[in-house]
Design a protein that fits this description.
six-stranded antiparallel beta sheet; 6% strand; two-stranded antiparallel sheet; 944 residues; mainly alpha
C-alpha cells in the first residue's frame, strides 16, 4: 500500500522558524536536524510518517492515529478533539517518549547518532542509551539482532555474537563478544559453593552486577507451581555447577614468580590499583569516586578467589588476561617488577607489583557462600521430565532406573549420552545441569564447553518493532496487575490493557516471568518462562524499549538509509571499536565545551601573546561580526572548547570571587582553550592565557567525551609528582596521565599508530601509567587509525607514506651536513636545551626528576607528521596547552643561541625539524660502512 503524507494539512508551520504559535501551527523542534531546508531531513523529501508513522492520508486529528504520551494527554484529547484509539491500524504514531526509535530505520550503525561537531547534542540520546545497555548487558546473547536479511541486504542494526550463532546469512559474521566471563576453567577459579551462590542470586555477592537473576523469581507463581519452584530450582543450581565442573578445562598456570626483595604490600597494591588504570573499568569501595561499570566491581573479589587455585587464576589474569580467556577485552597491563641488587650479589626482582595488587584485592573479609539443598527424589523427577520430552513415559522410566546403552543414546541424540551406563547421582546431575544450561541460556553470556554452536534461546528481535500485537502472548497479565503487582506506571498499565506492544515490552523488562501468572501451574516445570530479570531502572527500561521498538527490519528506500562515507564513515566504524575496548574511559576524545553569555563591553579577553603569524587563528568577517552581536539584554555569546583549570583536589578551580550588588557570591573560573575562539570580535589563539569566565556567565556546559580516569587521577598524580621532588603546578599533572586525543590524527603517522595500537611501548617516560596492551586485530587497529584521522579533520586517503619534509633521497652535501651538525649540537645540549629533559637513543638525563623526563627524540621520525612537528617546535602550547616544554624559537626578538645555531627562528625551526625527521638517516651518513670496515681492518693489523 502506498504511503500518504498529508500531515502538513494541519501542521502548517512545521518547517518554518518558530513564530510562537501553539500546535498545530508551531514549528518542529530542532529545525537544524529535522524538516528545515538545510537539515539532513528536509520536509519536502522526508515528510512526516516515515518517522512518526500514523495515517498520513487523514486530514483530521481524530483519524491521524495520534498516540498520547501520558494518560492526561488522552483525557484532554478526548475532550478537545474527540480522540479515540484507531482500531485495526498497524502503524499508529508512537508516543513522544519513543519517537527516537524510528531513527533505527535509517541509521543502522547507531553510532552515527552519537554527538558530533555538527550536532554536539546527541540527536537521539535515549535511543543511544538503550543501544549501550543492550550492548553492555549482552541481550544479543539470547535474542538474535541480525542486521541483514537472507539476501545479505542491510535491514537494521547488527548486534550478533562472534562467530554468528544465528541462522546462516549472506551478510558478514557477527562481531560482538559475549558479555560474561568464560567458564571453560571455572573449576580452577571458584569453589562449587561460590558458583552456586552466584547462580542462585548474583546480587548477594555483587549487588551492582549486570548478571540477571534466573532463580528465585516467584512473585507470579501460585500453588502448586510455587512449590515446584522451591523443589526444582535448588536441583538445577546444583546440577548446573555439577555440569560445569565436569567439563571444566585444566589450564596450566603461568610460571611461578621468582625471589623478591620485599613481601607483598596491600598499601603498594592499593596505589598500583589506582595509578595503573584499573579504575578505568572497575569499581572498588576503596575508591568511591570511581564509577566505571565496564568491568565488574572488584571490592570483594578476594573472597571470590579465596582458594590456592583461585589465587593462581587471579595472578594469571593480572599477568596475562588472554592466558585464561583468549577473547577477553581486558588488556594486558604492564605490571613489571623492578630489578633491585641484593647484598649476596644474587639478582632479585622486587617488589612484585602483581603480588602487591593481589595483596590489596585479597585483603577482604571472608564470604560464606551458600549451596542450596535439594532432595534426590526431586532430581529424579527432573530427569524424568527431561527424558519424557524425547521418549515415551515407560521408556523414560526404564532409562532412569537402568540407564541407557550407547546405541539408545545415539538414537535419541541430544544430551542423553550423559546417562549411558548404570545410573548414578553424578550422571543425573550432569544431565540435568546440561539441560538447564540449555533451557536457561547461560551460554548466551558465557563461553561454556558443549555449547559452541548452540542457537539463542530467546525470540529474535530483528523485527520486533513491527511484530503484530495479536501475536504477543499477554496471557493473564491483567489479573497479575490487579492482584499482585503495584501499579507504579499507569501509562504502561493502560498500554497493557489495550494490548499495545509498549505495555508488553515494559512488563517483560520489569517482570519477565509475570506472563506465566496462573499459567505455570498448568504447565510442566521445564515449559515455564525462563527469561532472567535485569535490575534496570525505569529510565533504563524506557531506553531499552526505545531501541527494541526501532527494530523493524523494514528500511525505506536506499536513498533514505543513512550511509556515511569518507571521514564520517571512519568515525562511525571506529566508534564501535572504541566502545568495545572502552578507550574513552581513559582518554578524552572530545574536549569540554562552555557556552557563555557575556557583556562585550565589560568582558576582558586574554591578553595577546607573541606567536608566528601562520599560527594565529583565522576567522571570517561574518564570524567576527556574529561574535559582536548582542541580544535584548545586551549579552553576546560564545562557545569555548577545552578544559577548565582544576584545583589540587580535582575540582573546577576558583581563581577569584566577588559579590554582586545584591550580596550574591560571584565565582571566577579559568578556562584553557584547545580550539581558537572569537570573543567580542577578538580572535583568541590556543596557547595563550586562560579565558576568565564568571560562573553566572556560563549558560551551558557540555561535558567532555571520555577521560574520566584522567580527571579522577589528577589530584593523585599531582601529589605523587610533588612527593617525587617536582615543583609541579596544577596543569602539569595532565602530562603524567592518559593524554587527550582529539588532535592525534593530525599529529602522528598512520602507519606508526597502527603498529603502536597493537604493540604499545613507552613514549612519555614521565607518565605515571602505561598504555596497556589491548589484543586488537589488524582490522580493529585500522578502524581506530581511520577514526582518529577523520575526527581530527585529516584529509583522505589515510596513508602511511613518508612525510614530504624528509630528505632521505637527497644527498648530504657539505652545507646540509653543517646545518644538521648545528642542529645536533642544540639537540645534544644537556645544560639548556633538548638533552636536558629528553631521552635520545640510549641516553637518559641523569639528574632529571622522573616526572620531568621527556620523550625519546630518536623516535620522532617514524611517529610524528612533519607539519605537526614543525608546529610543535614553533609553539608547543598551541598544540598541547598544558605542556611545560618552552617555546625555544621565539617569533620576535633574538633567536635561539645564534652563535652556536646561526639563523633566525624560522631557519632554526626548519633545520631542527629536518634533523628530527631524518635523525637515523643523518647518523648513518656520518660514516660509511666502507670506512668502518677499513678502520676495523687497520686496527686488527696494528694489534700485536
Amino acid at each position: 500500500m502506498a504511503r500518504f503524507d498529508r500531515c502538513t494539512t494541519c501542521h502548517q508551520g512545521i518547517a518554518e522558524p518558530d513564530r510562537g504559535f501553539p500546535q498545530p501551527f508551531s514549528s518542529h523542534p530542532r529545525l537544524d536536524l529535522y524538516l528545515g531546508s538545510h537539515s539532513p531531513h528536509p520536509v519536502d523529501e522526508f515528510g512526516c510518517t516515515i518517522c512518526h508513522d500514523g495515517q498520513g492520508s487523514a486530514t483530521s486529528f481524530r483519524w491521524a492515529s495520534h498516540t498520547p504520551n501520558a494518560l492526561h494527554d488522552a483525557t484532554r484529547w478526548r475532550r478537545e478533539h474527540a480522540w479515540q484509539p484507531t482500531e485495526h491500524w498497524e502503524w499508529p504514531m508512537l508516543p513522544r517518549r519513543f519517537l527516537e526509535s524510528r531513527c533505527l530505520q535509517c541509521h543502522h550503525e547507531v553510532t552515527d547518532l552519537e554527538p558530533s561537531d555538527r550536532y554536539p547534542d546527541a540527536p537521539a540520546p535515549r535511543l543511544l542509551a538503550g543501544y549501550h545497555l543492550i550492548r553492555e548487558n549482552g541481550c544479543f546473547g539470547c535474542h538474535d539482532i541480525d542486521g541483514y536479511d537472507a539476501a545479505g541486504r542491510r535491514i537494521g542494526p547488527d548486534m550478533r555474537l562472534e562467530p554468528s550463532v544465528a541462522a546462516a546469512t549472506d551478510g558478514p559474521p557477527g562481531t560482538l563478544r559475549k558479555a560474561g566471563p568464560s567458564l571453560r576453567d571455572v573449576a580452577q577459579k571458584l569453589t562449587p559453593a561460590m558458583a552456586m551462590d552466584r547462580t542462585a542470586d548474583p546480587r548477594l555477592f555483587l549487588p551492582q552486577t549486570r548478571m540477571p537473576r534466573l532463580f528465585g523469581l516467584h512473585a507470579h507463581l501460585t500453588d502448586p507451581a510455587h512449590d515446584d519452584a522451591h523443589r526444582f530450582e535448588p536441583v538445577e543450581i546444583q546440577a548446573i555447577v555439577a555440569y560445569l565442573w565436569s567439563v571444566s578445562e585444566s589450564i596450566e598456570p603461568l610460571p611461578a614468580a621468582g625471589r623478591f626483595a620485599e613481601d607483598a604490600s596491600p598499601a603498594r597494591g592499593r596505589n598500583l590499583f589506582q595509578m595503573q588504570g584499573c579504575l578505568a573499568c572497575h569499581q572498588h569501595e576503596a575508591f568511591p569516586e570511581g564509577q566505571s561499570a565496564v568491568g565488574p566491581d572488584l571490592s570483594r573479589i578476594g573472597a571470590k578467589y579465596a582458594t590456592d587455585s583461585g589465587k593462581a587464576w587471579l595472578r594469571d589474569l593480572l599477568l596475562d588476561p588472554t592466558h585464561r580467556s583468549p577473547r577477553t577485552p581486558m588488556p594486558h597491563v604492564p605490571l613489571e617488577p623492578v630489578r633491585w641488587p641484593q647484598a649476596d650479589g644474587e639478582p632479585a626482582e622486587g617488589p612484585d607489583p602483581v603480588a602487591d595488587v593481589m595483596a590489596f584485592l585479597l585483603d577482604v573479609p571472608p564470604y560464606a557462600a551458600a549451596a542450596p539443598d535439594y532432595r534426590p527424589a526431586d532430581l529424579d523427577e527432573l530427569v524424568l521430565q527431561h527424558l519424557t520430552r524425547v521418549m515415551p513415559q515407560a521408556a523414560a522410566v526404564a532409562a532412569w532406573r537402568e540407564g541407557l546403552s550407547e546405541s539408545e543414546a545415539q538414537a535419541l541424540g541430544g544430551d542423553t549420552e550423559l546417562l549411558v551406563g548404570r545410573p548414578s547421582l553424578k550422571k543425573k546431575l550432569r544431565y540435568v545441569g546440561k539441560r538447564t544450561v540449555a533451557k536457561r541460556g547461560c551460554y548466551g553470556c558465557h563461553d561454556i564447553p558443549g555449547f559452541d554452536d548452540a542457537p539463542p534461546i530467546g525470540p529474535a528481535l530483528t523485527d520486533w518493532g513491527r511484530k503484530r500485537e495479536t501475536l504477543l502472548a499477554f496471557e493473564q497479565i491483567d489479573r497479575y496487575l490487579d492482584e499482585v503487582a503495584d501499579d507504579t506506571a499507569p501509562f504502561f498499565t493502560e498500554a497493557i490493557r489495550r494490548r499495545r506492544r509498549e505495555g508488553f515490552l515494559w512488563q517483560k523488562l520489569r517482570e519477565p516471568r509475570s506472563f506465566d501468572y496462573r499459567q505455570a501451574a498448568g504447565k510442566p516445570f521445564n515449559e515455564w518462562l525462563t527469561m532472567g530479570q535485569f535490575d534496570f531502572t525505569p529510565e533504563q527500561r524506557e531506553a531499552v524499549m526505545t531501541f527494541v521498538l526501532g527494530l523493524t527490519a523494514d528500511p525505506p528506500r536506499a536513498t533514505y538509509v543513512h550511509a556515511p562515507e569518507g571521514p564520517r564513515r571512519a568515525v562511525v566504524k571506529g566508534r564501535h571499536v572504541l566502545d568495545r575496548f572502552a578507550c574513552a574511559e581513559c582518554h578524552t576524545l572530545r574536549m569540554e565545551q562552555w557556552s557563555i553569555a557575556y557583556d562585550p563591553d565589560r568582558f576582558d579577553p586574554p591578553p595577546p601573546h607573541d606567536d608566528f603569524d601562520w599560527l594565529l587563528p583565522r576567522f571570517s568577517q561574518e564570524e567576527i561580526e556574529a561574535s559582536r552581536a548582542v541580544d535584548d539584554r545586551g549579552l553576546a555569546r560564545a562557545t569555548l572548547t577545552g578544559m577548565p583549570r582544576l584545583d589540587d583536589e580535582g575540582r573546577i578551580a576558583i581563581v577569584d570571587d566577588d559579590m554582586d550588588e545584591e550580596g550574591n557570591e560571584l565565582l571566577l573560573h579559568a578556562f584553557t582553550l584547545w580550539e581558537p575562539a572569537v570573543l567580542a570580535g577578538e580572535p583568541i589563539a590556543v596557547g595563550g592565557a586562560d579565558v576568565l569566565v564568571w560562573h553566572h556567565q556560563i549558560e551551558r556546559r557540555r561535558p567532555a567525551w571520555g577521560g574520566e580516569l584522567a580527571r579522577m587521577l589528577y589530584p593523585a598524580a599531582l601529589a605523587e609528582a610533588r612527593a617525587a621532588g617536582a615543583q609541579a603546578i596544577g596543569p602539569e599533572a595532565w602530562g603524567w596521565l592518559p593524554p587527550p586525543l582529539p588532535h592525534t590524527g593530525k599529529a602522528v603517522q598512520p602507519s606508526w599508530l597502527h603498529e603502536y595500537l597493537q604493540r604499545p611501548y613507552v613514549i612519555r617516560p614521565a607518565a605515571m601509567l602505561r598504555m596497556p596492551h589491548y589484543h586488537l586485530s589488524p582490522e580493529e587497529a585500522g578502524k581506530l587509525v581511520d577514526f582518529f584521522k577523520a575526527a581530527a579533520g585529516a584529509e583522505l586517503p589515510y596513508t602511511g607514506a613518508p612525510s614530504p619534509r624528509r630528505l632521505r633521497d637527497e644527498p648530504l652535501t657539505a652545507d646540509r651536513r653543517e646545518r644538521f651538525g648545528e642542529a645536533m649540537r642544540m639537540l645534544l645540549d644537556t645544560q639548556a636545551y633538548c638533552a636536558r629533559c629528553h631521552r635520545i637513543g640510549d641516553y637518559t638525563p641523569g639528574e632529571a626528576v622522573p616526572v620531568s623526563l621527556a620523550p625519546d627524540l630518536a623516535q620522532v621520525a617514524p611517529r610524528l607528521q612533519a607539519e605537526f612537528l614543525y608546529r610543535w617546535l614553533a609553539s608547543p602550547a598551541s598544540v598541547l596547552p598544558y605542556t611545560v616544554m618552552p617555546a625555544n624559537f621565539p617569533p620576535t626578538g633574538r633567536s635561539l643561541d645564534p652563535i652556536r645555531f646561526p639563523g633566525d627562528s624560522v631557519e632554526q625551526l626548519e633545520r631542527m625539524t629536518d634533523l628530527l625527521l631524518n635523525y637515523d638517516w643523518y647518523l648513518k651518513q656520518q660514516q660509511s660502512i666502507r670506512e668502518r670496515i677499513d678502520d676495523a681492518g687497520t686496527a686488527a693489523a696494528d694489534s700485536p
